[in-house]
Design a protein that fits this description.
9 helices, mainly alpha, Glycerol uptake facilitator protein
Length: 228
């Protein structure tokens, strides 16, 4: 797949993610038609659909932290990292400005703002991102699963993560998802945690998966194939 097509897919996918996820948060803030659970489900469903549709084209990173982690794990070429990150952020900004044009500056255009101490919010974003990265690498390492399993697993993780952490940090786990609404609404409250938290957390989650995966493979090679 050409790099141009992959980059366009990342820009479109991240724009769709921001339009649906923060868009649902804006509707919740303005009309109360959608509650917190509904916003979390919206995030999870759109991520699952985008992974399913865009995965074969670009890998459906949709997240600078995912791209950087894949590069760090030597699973993504360095030459494409900046292109992906710029495309993801550009798509997020475009979708956020579209939301602002349609709905106004409601709920800070879905910007993520911590409701707890900055250090606590940073730790929450790190931990949730680590779990998400662990799931991503776990499903990516299994080649005998049905095609629907990875999108459903990743989407479910995003949904649960957003539901649990949303009241504290907004449940981002994605620098681009936070960057787009921040630009459109000029809301930069503790914005740095939505970059460093997800990136460091995903590095940790990916490393944990690598250690456990290698340990499991060594155990299997030592014990031999099961006869039961």
């Amino acid at each position: 797949m050409s790099v141009g097509r992959r980059v366009r897919a990342e820009a479109f996918g991240t724009a769709a993610l921001v339009f649906v996820g923060p868009g649902a948060a804006m509707l919740s803030a303005s009309t109360r038609v959608i509650d917190h659970l509904g916003v979390s489900v919206a995030f999870g469903v759109i991520v699952a659909l985008l992974v399913l549709v865009l995965g074969p084209i670009s890998g459906a990173h949709l997240n600078p932290a995912v791209t950087l982690t894949l590069w760090w794990m030597q699973r993504f070429p360095r030459r494409d990292v900046l292109l992906y990150v710029v495309a993801q952020c550009a798509g997020a900004v475009a979708a956020a400005f579209l939301l602002r044009a349609l709905l106004g500056d409601v709920g800070h255009v879905g910007a993520t703002i911590p409701s707890v101490r900055t250090a606590t919010a940073f730790a929450i974003e790190c931990a949730a991102s680590a779990i998400l990265a662990f799931v991503i690498f776990a499903v990516a390492s299994q080649h005998n699963w049905q095609p629907l399993v990875p999108p459903l697993a990743i989407g479910a993780t995003v949904c649960v993560g957003a539901y649990v952490t949303g009241p504290w940090t907004g449940g981002s786990f994605n620098p681009a998802r936070s960057f787009g609404p921040a630009v459109a609404s000029h809301t930069w409250t503790a914005h740095w945690i939505y970059w460093f938290g997800p990136i460091l957390g995903m590095f940790a989650g990916a490393q944990l998966h690598r250690v456990l995966h290698h340990a499991f493979r060594r155990l299997r090679s030592t014990n031999g194939p099961s006869t039961t």
